[in-house]
Design a protein that fits this description.
Blueprint: H1 9-18, E1 24-27, E2 37-42, E3 45-51, H2 55-71, E4 80-84, E5 89-92, E6 98-99, H3 107-126, H4 133-157, H5 163-179, E7 185-188, E8 197-200, E9 205-208, E10 215-218, H6 224-231, H7 235-245, H8 251-275, H9 278-294
Antiparallel strand pairs: 1-2, 2-3, 3-5, 4-5, 6-8, 7-10, 8-9
Length: 296
Amino acid sequence: MTQNTPISSDLRRWVNENLAGVDLVADVSWPKAKSQVWRVSAGDQAAYVKISPSALDYQREITGYQHAKYALDPDGAPQLLAADPGLQAILSSPQPGLVVRDLPLDLQDEQRVYELAGRSLRRWHDASASAPDRERDAIGASMAQQADEAAACLDSVGDQLDAAQRALVRCVADELPQLGHQVPVVYRHGDFATRNWLWDSPSGILGLIDFEMAAHGLAAEEYTWLYAAVWVERPDLKTAFFDGYGRPLNAEEDRLLHLLTTRLGVSYLNSGLIKNDSVLIDRGRLVLARMADQDQ
């Protein structure tokens, strides 16, 4: 949006305490229920203000900003300017560039963006602190939950799958909990999708934003959306990404990614059939077909 958009009086007061003379408020929220983000301007100064949807999201975002400052280049992420736990509000500096999702790029720039994304994520992961026991317990519970979801989806849409696809979804249900204990735990960005990458073509800088899902987890989880939504059709971008990351996946990580992506594919299909959403149905079928083909 480009028009002045009202925000609550308490939030406006807090913003003015940290950016005096605000004269423009533009709603730049994502089109989803929990997204509350505004671009605020005071003359030639600008910042972004965000209301976190929960106390946990707020704390994760604050910790994510601190981690980004330590792990990434100074221009690799926005700076945290102010935060208020009562309002669950965060004020951050603008990050140069345009959102990569749906951004028209030529092949060379596209591959460069993915290489830089891999490089940034490797730095993010390498700066990880050890995971507390409660985080490791949560990871194990998540793997078990995803295995159960795959089994439930198989019961629901198994008749929509061929024999190879059904067998692979069963592998998700059987293998996922065990594999989750065999791969390294890292501090994840948590929503490492192209909507959270900003590409500044003049400077050649790729920036990362949105840290509200940052938490300890399995590195392979970072790549699931990319694999399902992009890499199944663009293996060249997967190659560019891991060139930037600096190492390929080991056998256990590769299997885990394969199964996590299969789980996502069958979830897409199940949700699409329930909602009569052709986009989700087609995406689920494509992912499952590609995963089953690669499993042969």
